[in-house]
Amino acid sequence: MAVGLRYHHSCVNCFGLNTDERNEKGLPCEVCLSEEVEPGEVLQRLEKNGKLMFYRYIKDFEKNFSDFSDFFKRVTGFPPTGFQRIWMKRVLLSKSFTAIAPTGVGKTTFGMVTSLWFSFHAKRSAMILPTLTLVLQIRERLEGMVKRIDGDVDIIHYHAGMKEKEKKEFFEKLERGDFHIAIFSTQFLSKNREILSKLKFDFVFVDDVDAVLKSSKNIDTILMMLGIEKEAIEKALMKLRKKREEELEIGEHGILVVSSATARPKGIRPLLFRELLGFDVGTLVVGVRNITNLRVKSEDTDDLLDLLEKLKDGIVLLARDEKTIKWLSEIVEGAGFPVGKSWENLEKALEDFSEGKVSIIAGVYSYYGKLVRGLDLPKRVKFVIFWGTPVFEYFIDMEKAPRFVIRRVLFEVSKKNTKVKKLLQIVDRSDIETLRNRLKVVLTEDEWEETIKRIFARYRIKERKLLLPDVLTYIQASGRSSRLLGSKLTKGVSILFETDEAVFESLRERLDWLTEEEWIDLEDADWETLLKEVEESRKEEKKEFMDVKSTLLIVESPTKAETISRFFGRSSTRRYKGILVHESITGDGIFLLTATRGHVYDLVTEGGIYGVEVENGKFVPVYETIRRCRKCGYQFSQDLDTCPKCGSKDIDNKLDVLKSLREIALEVDEILVATDPDVEGEKISWDVTQYLIPVNNNTRRIEMHEITRYGFREGIASKRDVDSNLVKSQIVRRVQDRWIGFELSKKIQKAFNSLNLSA
User: Fold this and answer.
1) DSSP assignment of 419-487, as one string?
2) Among 678, 703, 679, which Cα is nearest to 553's?
3) Angle at the Cα of 563 (from 560 to 568), degrees rounded to 5?
4) d(CA 1, CA 700)
5) Given the DSSP bridges, would you call strands 612-615 and 635-636 parallel, antiparallel or unpaired?
6) Residue 110 CB contacts under 8 Å (≥ 6 apart), including other chains
7) C-alpha to C-alpha distance for 130 and 210, rounded to whole angstroms
8) What is the value of pTM for the model shown?
9) ∠ CA 373-118-662, rounded to 5°
10) Mean pLDDT of 681-704
């Protein structure tokens, strides 16, 4: 494909001038390595010649990743999946990030293996978990992993049920730093900030970022656990409050990995992760699940007993409150089914269920419930039964209505009611109590009632309360039945007993939007096939590998990158020098989307014939990264740190974009360049491709003819190489512009004695 071009700053070893031909072969420039050798010999030759520079970093990274992958397979029995591979690479690159992935695909396993990996390199880790259940499960699983590799790892954990002697030993070890891995809950984090903030951790894994974000002090504690000084945190807060543009010096620090949040983080403090660690906390992703959703239109417990007879084992039974679940458990046990009662003794209930002593474990569903967030038993949990839909209940009376109800009513009424419209103009919309009091004056009870019924017509209103589906609790709880087992996703079945059509439809619609999962009525289920799939997916001898790819998708426009990311629910954003990277999960895998902001290279203006050298009768265009002065807007392609027009040093250099892209290229399995489908887009595609190939040769070109989901999928399905003929046509056009335009401009400037004129 190489078309005979030379690019400044493209050498993979010294960042000097290199040809597109050598870059395509993965070779450094001729100054670093005069002869052409096989890729496997490059490192040795550079070392022998005393020319080894950045190339060592790439090869060290590749070796470390290979070692990390082998370690992962040794402790788990399976190779890492696509999700886990990209996370492992980021850790090796010392990047903090949000682990964007659906429930059950191995986030916690990654956290455990990474903690062990750090312990084998004499480094210290912390795992912060949402529930006591998970603290106990993770401790047990980690100890099992250590035995598997016959390692010597000091693991400490804390939970409220420990004996006083055990607690004392834990705190003594913690304060001395005499451990490799510490496991504790978010609640422990909140209560022991002073001790934890004095310790230095190389790796911190947070599996409950929602709870962490609720307290600004928790955020500060975690940052200090990473080795970031309190002074640096205060400076970052000041920068955020005053919206300053400045670089912060924070020194060396540990790596933070957090799970995605279920709601958009609020306030200024969560932005500290962006300012100090370079990433935004994302929101929940639901994408990879293998669950069949069944609905039972019944409230008859006999139907529940018939169902249990069919399912037999591996059942999680959930109800809305303790009174209901106790009543159900009595009926179920009376029919001869042994039940583990999580509200009596959680640890014993889990142990009995895990060992098969009971076929059912029962509890209450809530987002932070013990069985909703704290149950990770992929072999045992096969079926999740909901006795009623998880819902939020909100008062609809004007006196008690929550913030979002007040706002919805105001918006609706203001369309026709001038008094309310005026009210919105003079009262702060965040001041809910003032709005509520003013509403009583300008809105009658009848108008309020009529508006409430109109706005929430699709939802159930019962006993003066609005019932809205708690879809995230449903997703989390049902997801217990479809987890990563080794490297494959188990099949799960979620069964909902619900007779209220309005409540069910509101849940179904919301779930469709998030997961595109279908619902089947119980009587229409193919039980023979379903039960077979459930059992087959849990057979260990079936060594099929569930994998997804990670892809870097590069477009020209930042707006286009953001638009595409929103097609699939943009989940997280990371900031690099010169670019913003959005991360999304699709059925095709993990996508990192970013933009070049147009061309990255242009012909040099000095040397040769206006940037084109002549060698042995051949024309060789030479390219320099494009620079633009942020002060006066002047664009130039000279290797200068100051603007040749106004002298400003505030320069936007596309080299920053290219270096950031090369860094991200190390993380992903493949790179797709989706610049515009024309000759200019083709040239940008080649400029980027030849720069990235030395660090990731799985780089292809795609075209998107419309910025829609369909256009995206069509492009992904039509990968190709860069078209050299289109690239050459753009080069001819640009050289023509340069030769004729530059020469004419000189004549015009001379004739009119003005350097501001051009042809």
Assistant:
1) HHHHHHHHS-TT-HHHHHHHHHHHS-HHHHHHHHHHHTTTSEEETTEEEEE-HHHHHHHHGGGS-EETT
2) 703
3) 135
4) 12
5) unpaired
6) 80, 83, 84, 87, 88, 99, 257
7) 9
8) 0.75
9) 95
10) 97
**H helix or E strand, kind and range, residue 384:** strand 383-387
Q: Which domains does the chain have, with CATH numbers?
A: 6-56+548-730 (3.40.50.140), 103-280 (3.40.50.300), 291-392+470-536 (3.40.50.300), 397-455 (no CATH)
How many residues does the structure list for the chain? Answer: 759
Predicted confidence (pLDDT) per residue in 277-323, tens digit = 988 876 655 556 789 999 999 999 999 999 999 999 999 999 999 99
Residues of the chain above pLDDT 70, percent: 92
Tokens 């009596």 appear where?
Answer: 344
Question: Tokens in use for 486?
Answer: 């080794």
Q: Give the span between the Cα atoms of 520 and 291, in whole angstroms.
A: 11
pLDDT grade for 546, boundaries at 50, 70 and 90: low
CB of 447 closer than 8 Å to CB of 441: no
Contact 87, 111 (CB under 8 A): no
Tokens of 711: 């256009």
Residue given tokens 């910025």 in the structure block: 707
3-state secondary structure 101-139: CCCCCCHHHHHHHHHHHHHCCCCCEEEEECCHHHHHHHH
573 near 581, Cβ under 8 Å?
yes
Question: What does each C-alpha distance from 451 to 23, 398, 409, 418 come to in angstroms?
Answer: 66, 11, 6, 15
Residue 182 region by backbone torsions, left for phi larger than 0, else alpha for psi between -120 and 50, else beta: beta
Cβ–Cβ under 8 Å, residues 483 and 378: yes
DSSP 8-state assignment for residue 230:
H
Give the list of residues 6+ apart from residue 116 with CB closer than 8 angstroms, or none. Answer: 71, 75, 142, 145, 146, 151, 153, 181
The two structure tokens encoding residue 30: 């001729």
Q: What is the pLDDT of residues 635-645, one digit of tens each?
A: 999 999 999 99
Q: Which residue has the tokens 């970052």?
A: 236
- Is the distance from CB of 285 to CB of 571 less than 8 angstroms? yes
Q: Give dist(CA 588, CA 583) in Å, integer.
A: 13
